[in-house]
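hiii, so i know i said id send this last week but things got crazy w the move. better late than never?? heres the sequnce for the chain we talked about at the cafe, plus the structure i predicted for it. fair warning i was half asleep when i ran it
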Amino acid sequence: MLGRDVLTVLKRAGIEAVGRNRADLDITDPAAVRAAVEGAAVVVNCAAWTDVDGAESAEEAATAVNGTAVRVLAEACAAAGVRLIHVSTDYVLPGDASEPYREDAVTGPVNAYGRSKLVGEQAVTELLPQDGYVVRTAWLYGEHGSNFVATMLKLAAQRDSLDVVDDQHGQPTWSYALAGRLVDLGLAALRGRAAGGIYHGTASGRTTWRGLAREAYRLSGLDPERIRPTTSEAFVRPAARPAFSVLAHDAWQQKAGLEPLADWREQLALALATPGFAALAEAARDGRAG
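okay and structure toks below
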């Protein structure tokens, strides 16, 4: 999802880039990683084990991708003098705050996925203190790949109403908007205008999963009252979820001279106008009418 959007942004900007998928590159293979980064100016790592619940029973495998492989990548970039932008997650934080988490907040993952991602963060900040950029994102959705917004629109064609969790707070973030910001950060880094460290790549504002679903319905011409509130306790999952995933965005201006990403509602409106989401919304309206 995010990797495809990064390549699209780069292509539209006329910037030469090479994309590697799982078939092209095993990021747990040090020799392959060293060969892949050779000659690059910036590497953007969008690869990850993203099965949060699956990581609970396969933490070693998740850490191999989200942690150990990131260290391999950071070592290769350090040796080659390449800047690395690594995408991380709000799940490295404990999720028990009441105010937005600053970039220097104390970490404390509540599940295996978060622990595996924290290992990757620590590798980048340790091995690339000046040339490593950790960008935490959250509640990501986009045209490519499975995500919450797409799921809600698909279900709208099948069900009269949906129960959606209303006690988890976060910042829904459009993958294309994040991709643009990652490219901005890479360019700023190449120009010597961006300091290494941790950045928070999430939309401005905040809402709940129910709030996101209701706004997606409203913007798609569907009745938001079809989205009913429920609690996290009603949807027990193998992995615990942080209740509060709202992140602060001070580092963009302070360390890179860039503005934070736009409000989540603005991002969502733009995303839903893209062909993939527009088709889902049309199908949802047709299904409802039927």
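btw Residues 2-289 form a domain with the Rossmann fold fold (CATH 3.40.50.720). thought thatd interest u
miss u guys!!
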